[in-house]
Amino acid sequence: MALHRDLTDAQWSSVEALFIAFRARKDPRGRPTRNTRMVLNGVLWILASGSAWAALPTRYPDYRTCHRRFKVWFDSGVLQRAMHDLYGETGDAMCEAVAARMHRPHPGEPAASAGTPASGRWRDRARPMSRAAD
């Protein structure tokens, strides 16, 4: 995939219908929904740049919003379909590379939560320094 550019109007209109089902909320409470096109542009920027989600430029919605929707779209197959429609075989290859990098627990294996010994992050937490007796 070439250097990332935001979707053109023609590109967006070709994939917009894929994302309509994810726009409707059942519960009207909460924050207003972000522009789906801008969220998709943010996701595409991450995929093209290989950067961390927190490095997402401010012209896109919050990185947590983009990451949350990325997970939903990727797990449902919508993102793969949009990437194929937009970029063809290059988009397919990008999705395969992303899937290979994603950590997925094996079937039957419980997912480790942050801060538990099984996650590995528990060991690396900073421990309070012990004060020497005066």
TrEMBL record:
UniProt-annotated stretches for the region Disordered: 104-134
Membrane-spanning segments: 38-56
InterPro entries the record matches: IS402-like_dom, Transposase_6_like
Domain (Insertion element IS402-like) ranges: 7-82
Basic and acidic residues: bias regions: 121-134
UniProt keyword annotation of ATP-binding present: no
Keywords: Membrane, Transmembrane, Transmembrane helix
Presence of the UniProt keyword Membrane in the record: yes
Name this polypeptide is given: Insertion element IS402-like domain-containing protein
Lineage: Bacteria, Pseudomonadati, Pseudomonadota, Betaproteobacteria, Burkholderiales
